């Protein structure tokens, strides 16, 4: 593949002062039928196409700082030791876009691809719009947009042998999994999060357009949390089963948080230092039968109240669960099959950092479960193994999609996403 | 059909002080395997299911007025001469859910169905949660939720002959239409709009559950505008082509606005007085080729600037377009094929009230075009006929879905949605 198109993109990205329109077909060529495949010749006969107004460049003030209220102009820096979108506050809207590498995308092409992605991420998240952005007005209000990039096993292999961490592979299978290819795997992940779906739609489209000569789309999942401004401040999100979801989660403020999620290997996968391992699971909910269960039954299933997520052993949401508590009959207050009991681990090395979102589309509802950790085999898998073996909640949830990605380390201004991988 | 299920729902809705859980299977019956089809017997052997905590009723304080910031607690009254969600401010999120009547749903069943819908609409939009709501916590923050109900031709026929307005039928076909059954037609429309997708997901689910013994799902479309708090205040929405979309729209403040959208027939369709006619068109955008066109070309296609939606003949967004203006070569500044010229009508009886939303899912992007009017044949069709015949924008947009609904008149507290139709 000669990659003419992406060389152009790259040129636009690199060229200082390049005209924003330089990547597009010339309007006149288009209107005179010069652009193949657009086919407006028939219309042309009607004339009047020649009254060209003064050219209005794409870069003309689209990102002027706004002084109005609201959060549209808010941007989160994409630069840092770690990528944005992992420990930054969860956004209201999320889109996972997974791609498969084209066969001809070699290491040199990956270099170009990551250079392009880096420029797009910098432009889109800052609201300045990348140079080649065809609708800069749609990029002007990033609404706390973050774009987080991960790589699958095949991409790491494409760079060269011996770089892959052991966990960068499909997860071991679980008894109850009903995985579909439609929502699983992938070589490249572009994870977009923002408080506005328009910002995500536009950013996803720009990146997609710019990397299409290297990859083809594999799967997409869109999710949401309660939107910004609608949530009760200080509350943990609720999933579509009505449960408070995500209460037990290590805080970035905890002193050993680094050892929970940030890769720190010094071995053959040292390129990943500062990155993380992401597990994404699409968990379908069977709401029709779930809603047949009365509230006490649903609360026993979880081990927490529905009203505020407090443990059935008392207190409020963040009170520690007393797994030893017995009721007046001497039976455990938190049943042996309760989700919280099965998910609970006394081993601190099994902690994961969760970041879920609801999905509800195409007649299916559920949770896009996502967790970050150093090593899914050590951290996520033992937890999921316990849930897979016994968890009453399994009657109403089914894992239908699964993917594992190495989330690239962060990058500074002037650096490039994926540089350590490609340099290794 | 005996409609046992919906009679139950109805009973719950009607019974003063009915226990919220009364419609659900008893937890103990479930845990002892009494509920068919749930199949948790295997788990049961593990015991410990009997430590029932104090019952926590569904109605327990879910809708307590919140005193925090944000708009989560905002509710829009569903009562009035007209239904909410038509001229109320457009929400960030929208979901159209169209249903087909089951063959056995007769007029008496429709009475019951509309009684149930009325209760659901009242409860869900107020944040109080309907009595049978299984996750009242998800209903507690309606975020300006509106639920607007419309009926298709088959439903009106089911009530009895001779009640149907002439326009309540599939639209006449247009040359360029590529309509798919997947997004067209329908007997009942439930249109949900809110500033929070969680409020919509929950409300859609509750209504769906409650009316499933009368109807089956036909199609669903989800859309969005820039989210509340992200938009630049006072700006008109942008579609995914980057255009300011919806500038020319009659305002409810105009003195003849009533004659644009509210039905006022005194004939056989007098039951619709205070209602409206809704046309929904799913318009796919070909963004790949659209983005090949440079900005002047795209602006000529529309007749407006991309930066702020001002006419190419000058001024700002809301300046009237000067269709007679010529450039220095004597050619029209607004080309003969420009979208704005073709959409423009000098006949005030052709006005429509638009209310669009973007969609971007399943690899397809576009606009869910919606317009309200007294009579689509008189108002929407001539406009669409002109666009169908000639509009350069057609190179990049295709109508792939179409539906027409009679939007029911509003209702007061104590009244029922659809009462005039069913009484006629």
Automatic annotation (TrEMBL), chains A, B:
Any single GO CC term annotated in Swiss-Prot or TrEMBL for this entry: cytosol
Coiled coil (UniProt feature): none
Keyword check for Hydrolase: no
Domain of life: Bacteria
Domain Dyp-type peroxidase C-terminal: start-end pairs: 237-410
Domain Dyp-type peroxidase N-terminal, first and last residues per copy: 83-225
Region described as Disordered: 1-20
Short name of any one Pfam family annotated for the protein: Dyp_perox_C
Listed cofactors: heme b
One of the record's GO molecular function terms: peroxidase activity
Keywords: Heme, Iron, Membrane, Metal-binding, Oxidoreductase, Peroxidase, Signal, Transmembrane, Transmembrane helix
InterPro entries: Dimeric_a/b-barrel (IPR011008), Dyp_perox_C (IPR048328), Dyp_perox_N (IPR048327), Dyp_peroxidase (IPR006314), TAT_signal (IPR006311)
Transmembrane regions: 29-52
Record's keyword annotation contains Thylakoid: no
Family: Belongs to the DyP-type peroxidase family.
UniProt-listed PANTHER family: DEFERROCHELATASE, DEFERROCHELATASE/PEROXIDASE
Name recorded for this polypeptide: Dyp-type peroxidase
Taxonomic source organism: Leucobacter viscericola
